[in-house]
């Protein structure tokens, strides 16, 4: 087995894990290897095995809202930001229930790649959503540069694998909410060229082209009844570009409409199982089955209110959601999308980004194999991303042209065209 291939763990048994880790870790393994780790092993042994596994295979999280906290707490002024120190001791992070992330804890959590959310609140829709999104992309970029080489920008499967080999943490960018487009395919394409690799179609508000989860209970605020024709164009353009479509926070009808036309696998970047907690932010079993057909991914969110439908939850609730989605959608269609830094109640046992080994030790206790844990950690996301890249490459080879914006599709906001009268040639 070559070093470059070490994430392709073929093992089905713990014995195999042990021998593979011996190779992967070479002489550097100080801890005694967990020769006999099974579901019934003591927690400490499973925990050590989880750490060894997560050192050997990439672990990728689908959603973290740190960039928005940087804007809220620091107005994006990060030159004095001490992301490499213990933020649990530094104000205002120390006092905020919304803060779960710093560099030390990312390393303790063995994270290989993080999708940072370039999130803009719905209040900015029809106003300056595009500008604020660009500023959030910029702050992700600046944070990544400032903490290079610990953090490194990644935009492809190859980047993620390289970074993992070199023990760097990938910064990936996801735009959270189609309102960030300002209704423009030109903006979508520009986001892609800036490195954005997924876009959540809706945040907690409808866009002019897709309904959000507000269309479902308890609000039943239906606007379009799913995806509009322009919304279908946006999904097709994302498939052409190679940007992953994210359905977290969409309405059930929007999910179905997108799943019916998507040419590439899609994700739910931070959603859990509706069957176990009936939040409209969670994914229903009927949709989980469609995700299997699409070869997509549901990345489980750790927000207590989505796990137990209350403020209180534990790692056992997270395990139950992970097991449920595995059972319904299949082992190839599950991942992790914590939502850290965008949630104010976290489960006991998985309070912050350092907790992934703890979660994996719990899953070992539920009989998860190395192969299954490897898929959950990152192999499934890498598979989805490769398929999205492959479809993009085929479309490029076929010379498929960019979709054009709908002429006169205008959001009801004042544009500079109107300010300067460019559209009526009166200047
Ligand atoms: C969840 O279930 C409760 C109790 O049956 C119900 O009141 C609530 O409306 C449901 N919520 C959703 C989103 O279906
Ligand atoms: C549930 O969480 C709330 C808020 O975090 C806390 O005050 C309360 O004591 C918890 N209840 C239980 C039963 O743990
Ligand atoms: C733009 O046109 C409107 C009427 O069409 C006019 O009232 C306004 O003064 C013009 N603005 C500029 C900057 O020329």
TrEMBL record:
<dbReference type="InterPro" id="IPR032466">
    <property type="entry name" value="Metal_Hydrolase"/>
</dbReference>
<keyword id="KW-0224">Dipeptidase</keyword>
<keyword id="KW-0449">Lipoprotein</keyword>
<keyword id="KW-0645">Protease</keyword>
<keyword id="KW-0472">Membrane</keyword>
<keyword id="KW-0325">Glycoprotein</keyword>
<comment type="subunit">
    <text>Homodimer; disulfide-linked.</text>
</comment>
<dbReference type="GO" id="GO:0006508">
    <property type="term" value="P:proteolysis"/>
</dbReference>
<keyword id="KW-0479">Metal-binding</keyword>
<keyword id="KW-0482">Metalloprotease</keyword>
<dbReference type="InterPro" id="IPR008257">
    <property type="entry name" value="Pept_M19"/>
</dbReference>
<dbReference type="GO" id="GO:0098552">
    <property type="term" value="C:side of membrane"/>
</dbReference>
<protein>
    <recommendedName>
        <fullName>Dipeptidase</fullName>
        <ecNumber>3.4.13.19</ecNumber>
    </recommendedName>
</protein>
<dbReference type="InterPro" id="IPR000180">
    <property type="entry name" value="Dipep_AS"/>
</dbReference>
<comment type="similarity">
    <text>Belongs to the metallo-dependent hydrolases superfamily. Peptidase M19 family.</text>
</comment>
<keyword id="KW-1015">Disulfide bond</keyword>
<keyword id="KW-0862">Zinc</keyword>
<keyword id="KW-0378">Hydrolase</keyword>
<dbReference type="Pfam" id="PF01244">
    <property type="entry name" value="Peptidase_M19"/>
</dbReference>
<dbReference type="GO" id="GO:0046872">
    <property type="term" value="F:metal ion binding"/>
</dbReference>
<dbReference type="GO" id="GO:0070573">
    <property type="term" value="F:metallodipeptidase activity"/>
</dbReference>
<keyword id="KW-0336">GPI-anchor</keyword>
